[in-house]
Amino acid sequence: MIFRTIFFLTLLSQVPAITGNIFSSIIPPLFGKKKSPPIETVFKLPSPLPVLPQGEGFATGTINLGGLEVSQVSTFSKIWATHEGGPDNLGVTFFEPLPILNGFFMLGCYAQPNKKALFGWVLAGKDGGTGALKMPVDYTLVWSSESSKIKQEGNGYIWLPVPPNGYKPVGYLVTNSPEKPPLDKIRCVCSDFTDDVEPELLIWEHDNVGNFNDISVKSLRPTNRGTQALGVSVGTFVALVNDSSSPLPISCLKNKEFNLSFMPNLSQIEGLIQAYAPLVYIHPDDLYLPSSVGWFFSNGARLYKKGNESNHVPIDPTGLNLPQGGSDDGSYWIDLPVDNGAKEKVKKGDLGGAGAYFHIKPMLGATFSDIAIWVFYPFNGPARAKVELVSVPLGRIGEHVGDWEHITLRISNFNGELWRVYFSQHSGGTWVDASEVEFQGGKNKVLAYASLHGHAFYSKPGLFLQGNNKIGIGIRDDAAKSEIVMDTGSRFAIVSAKYFKNEVISVPPWLNFYGKWGPKADYDIAMELEKIERVLPRNLKASFESAVNGLPNELLGEDGPTGPKAKDNWNGDER
Ligand SMILES: *[C@@H]1O[C@H](CO)[C@@H](O)[C@H](O)[C@H]1NC(C)=O
Ligand SMILES: *[C@@H]1O[C@H](CO)[C@@H](O)[C@H](O)[C@H]1NC(C)=O
Ligand SMILES: *[C@@H]1O[C@H](CO)[C@@H](O)[C@H](O)[C@H]1NC(C)=O
Ligand SMILES: *[C@@H]1O[C@H](CO)[C@@H](O)[C@H](O)[C@H]1NC(C)=O
After folding, report:
1. If residue 547 lies in a helix (H) or strand (E), which one and from where to where?
2. Nearest CA to ligand 1 atom 2
3. Smallest-distance ligand from the CA of 243
4. What residue spans carry the region label Disordered (predicted)?
5. With a 6 A CB cut-off, is 313 part of the ligand 4 pocket?
């Protein structure tokens, strides 16, 4: 991180003022002097990157994809910006990666919406003597801003490299002059090293009213993602003109030999956990706190078998007597203790003894490490709805036993830097860039907020609605700062890192239990809803009904919850 800034400042002194620059206080912008420049600062984590044990392939700056070496470049020179269009009409700035390591070549430019700190990277490539890279044979001018009347700094030109036979472009070039760029400016990639790519997020769009040539610029991700998938993100964008979206004219990279030596080893993972492991703020009114799995089992949780419900049995603290492997066929499930006193005690959890469970997995062709951090709550409390301005308790709806929630840190295997954080929310969740998450006390520890009763994770405090936001109806997720904090890095267990070669992880038997961690709802949802509707003002009944009908089953708690390993994201990407 420190190096990034130094590089950048060195760079500033070398770049002629005519190209403009993101540090307007140093080099005044040529256009729009009164306006603040679109992107003023470079994002920096609060603390320097963790110092990790050096060695093997992790965090050494480059990764070998099996004959094509790549490096991650996050220093940029600004090429062109417009001050309008795209999400929130923020406009966009296009950058060229600079400087690039000796012997490496540009594979594409970078684009980012304005009004936020510069935060991103693109890969640059070096041919390992395998013919992995070749110059384009020509460029196609995909779009230029010449005929548009947008607020912009000069004109911008977006070029798609025309590859030689058997090669593919993995990024675009952007220039601020109409001349075709020199062919040796960028490299195309041999199709042995490329994979399919799909648009991820909208970066910018411009409707060139009536003139065609409408453009949308989107970020990209490999189409095939997961712990075994080979697709590697390049960090570049796709520029789609006239709504032509398929097939995309570019590709991403592929980790041909899937060499896992660039993944962190055990001591490096412990360093990453020390540096980034989230602090979880639990809602001050929440009665249902996390516990360790062992505490839940030793304090009276029971194992049930279908057809023999009256003969439920206690569970060994490590889960040794839980059925192992297979899939959930509904024949076994876990439930709270039967005795009322024990039941109420277990529902409240045991924050003092609770720890988080970590799963480390390769992602994006093993160029990133996903650290999934699982938190267990014995009980998920009842939900509340928001119907227009009224907050409506939903009786027992939403309640369930055995609540597994997770946060995932996505960390670069090039340099150990945190890129994104995934906050799970009911059956989905959200990725938030490291530049947009909260940190505390000058440390790189991520803050997360667990919502009242439902324990959905958010990156900031506030009221979040699951449902139809537009008409103001939905299930409430209330997240707030409080004195109740769980440091997921202070009492953690690494329960899975399948790629390890020499290090041994002790996998707790409960991890291989594929049955449900709680029974199916034992209350009648229709009846609960009727009770609630009876007390609602007449004019709210209809909108309440339509809101509840649109809720996913998972929120209504009809089906019992599954354990971490039974979820799609165990081997797949988050969604
Ligand atoms: C991880 O790799 C580093 C660097 O090679 C080494 O110092 C450390 O001992 C390794 N840790 C383990 C647990 O193997
Ligand atoms: C978009 O449509 C306009 C008008 O039909 C055409 O002139 C232009 O070449 C098209 N551009 C692309 C990239 O298809
Ligand atoms: C994996 O990469 C490392 C570091 O570049 C290298 O030493 C090792 O030989 C590679 N392994 C395979 C199987 O290619
Ligand atoms: C029911 O469970 C009890 C206690 O585990 C066991 O002894 C019995 O054989 C079971 N009966 C059936 C039909 O599975």
Report:
1. helix 538-549
2. 55
3. 2
4. 551-575
5. yes
